[in-house]
Design brief:
Structural class: alpha/beta
GO molecular function, one term: acyl-CoA dehydrogenase activity
Distance between the termini: 15 Å
Protein name: Acyl-CoA reductase (LuxC)
Oligomer: single chain
Helix content: 25-40%
Largest sheet: 6 strands, mixed
InterPro entries: Ald_DH/histidinol_DH (IPR016161), CoA_reduct_LuxC (IPR008670)
Keywords: NADP
Strand order of the largest sheet: 8-9-10-7-6-11
CATH architecture of the largest domain: 3-Layer(aba) Sandwich
Length: 353
């Protein structure tokens, strides 16, 4: 199969996904094979919501829209243009996926197939309904993918390379288990935001998207703020207040109530606004409904500190603070070339061929 054929298949998948990216799902006339797949995917979305309470209709729509926007001919060609992908010797690449947000492993799935390899997917039990159905769509629009995509719930075996994502403890196991295979092993990372006190109301409103989207469960979600000494949080709380309906979701509310009770009983100092808490803490990974913060006295010292801890950080959100920063409100809108952990998966996949 030629690269352009693979690209064209994923463009068609993007057209298919676009139908499900709005609040009102609308069947388009020009999407291939809708008669076979449209109603079935609506059902899979429903199953995903029922199976995982964090996968709300809104968050699934957001994920599907993100992928529909990315899977266009222009973006796919711009992403792949720097690489020499033709004449790849196909290998079997295993992907062990996380399940924290909908379709979180799709970039790896796309990368393996677009480079001409075969993929063996082991999904998380938390996110098991959407991708297999989309894989069937891909095989239908491009039959040459038949035999290149497989899923397993058993031990991963008979593969040439692996991309695995898990917790810090799981990653250590992966590193041992896959030590004799080419691999990309990802562990826990968190994202941070650096505020100066000069942010506009719109900046802070945009930042709330980085904090609350997917309930903060993604590695690209901001879980910690760095603020200058003497920073007043009034403007920050005003900027995030429009997210207050989030507390009406039972799973979020339960976490908010539990963590608030823990903090109060432990007599920790924290600020809260009825649906969200902020707590001074040196850690990166904050619980649901909580954001950690830390004061800084020098931007240069802070840059040095963040550089030293870069292996724990996925994104730095700021405006004019550091090179390769992410703009407020854009952490959950990565481009295809914004690789997780800054490891170029396409280069990795081409190196094993």
């Amino acid at each position: 199969m030629q690269l352009q054929e693979r690209i064209n298949a994923f463009v068609k998948l993007g057209d298919f996904l676009r139908q499900f990216s709005n609040e009102v799902i609308s069947k388009a006339d020009n999407v291939e094979h809708n008669e076979v797949f449209f109603d079935g995917f609506k059902h899979q979305i429903k199953l995903a919501q029922e199976h995982n309470g964090w996968f709300t209709a809104e968050n699934i729509r957001f994920a599907l829209k993100s992928w529909a926007d990315a899977l266009t001919l222009t973006i796919l060609e711009a992403w792949l243009n720097p690489y020499a992908i033709e004449n790849v010797s196909p290998k079997q690449v295993a992907i062990i996926m996380a399940g924290n947000i909908p379709l979180v492993g799709f970039h790896d799935f796309l990368s393996v197939l677009i480079t001409g390899h075969k993929v063996l997917v082991k999904q998380s039990s938390n996110d098991k309904h959407l991708l297999p159905f989309l894989a069937k769509y891909i095989e239908y629009v491009e039959p040459k993918f038949n035999g290149a995509i497989s899923f397993t719930e058993a031990k991963v075996e008979n593969f040439d390379a692996v991309i695995a994502t898990g917790s810090n403890n799981t990653a250590r196991y992966f590193e041992y288990y896959f030590k004799n295979k080419p691999s990309i092993i990802r562990n826990n990372r968190n994202s941070v935001a650096v505020l100066t006190g000069n942010e506009t109301p719109q900046d802070l409103k945009n930042l709330s998207e980085d904090i609350f989207r997917y309930y903060g469960l993604g590695c690209r979600n901001v879980s910690k703020l760095y603020v200058p000494k003497g920073y007043k949080f009034d403007a920050f709380f005003e900027g995030i207040y429009h997210w207050h309906p989030i507390v009406e979701k039972a799973k979020y509310a339960n976490n908010y109530d539990y963590n608030k009770a823990v903090y109060l009983m432990s007599e920790f100092d924290m600020l809260e606004n009825g649906f969200f808490m902020i707590k001074e803490d040196e850690s990166f990974a904050s619980p649901i409904a909580t954001l950690f913060y830390e004061y800084y006295d020098s931007t240069e010292n802070l840059k040095t500190e963040l550089e030293a801890k870069k292996n724990q950080i996925q994104c730095i959100v700021s405006r004019g603070f550091i090179e390769n920063e992410i703009a407020f409100g854009h952490t959950q809108k990565p481009e295809l070339w914004d690789y997780a952990d800054s490891v170029d998966s396409i280069e990795f996949l081409l190196a094993i061929s």
